Amino acid sequence: MKLNPYLNFDGNAEEAFRFYHGIFGGEFFIQRMGETPGSENLPDDEKGRAMHVSVSIGDGQHLMASDCLPSAGHVLHVGNNNYISITPDSREEADRLFNELSAGGNIEMPMEDMFWGDYFGSFVDKFGVCWMINFPSKAQ
After folding, report:
1. pTM as predicted
2. Is CB count within 10 Å lower at the N or C end of the chain?
3. What is the 3 state secondary structure string of 4-48?
4. Dihedrals φ, ψ of 73, to 5°?
């Protein structure tokens, strides 16, 4: 089983995924709304939006997203109902991911050793996406 988080944005999916690509590396893919069948009926300002964008994040897993289409009645409601939880391979990688992904965002819990024994932190990035970084202490 693979877990591939899928996010929605309101016109800035490409910007967000170029940011994420700079942190995770991997393969970057984007297909724009204007490249899809029926796109001739879209307003010009929606043709450049992401129909599908992805960044590979290791072992067959991808972070994926698309932009909403206001002309189709799509409305984005940014909230805290989705977190992406990352379990890195080292404490150092946990710190790197936390520092880079949280840049310009809002830190909820800084990276700290927690009562349950793991090294954990959470934040909302500058695009409104909620993240948790959790490094299990038993992996040290």
Report:
1. 0.81
2. N
3. CCEEEECCCHHHHHHHHHHHHCCCEEEEEHHHCCCHHHCCHHHCC
4. 85, 10
Q: How far is CA 30 from the centre of its chain?
A: 14
Rounded distance, CA 125 to CA 118, Å?
22
The owner of tokens 């949280």 is 102
What is the rounded distance in angstroms from the CA atom of residue 64 to the CA atom of residue 44? Answer: 24
Render pLDDT for 55-107 as a digit per residue (tens, 0 to 9): 999 888 899 999 999 999 988 887 777 889 899 999 999 999 999 999 999 99
* C-beta atoms surrounding 71 within 10 Å: 12
Tokens 């450049």 belong to 48
pLDDT, one tens digit per residue, over 19-62 is 999 999 999 999 999 998 889 999 999 999 999 999 999 888 89
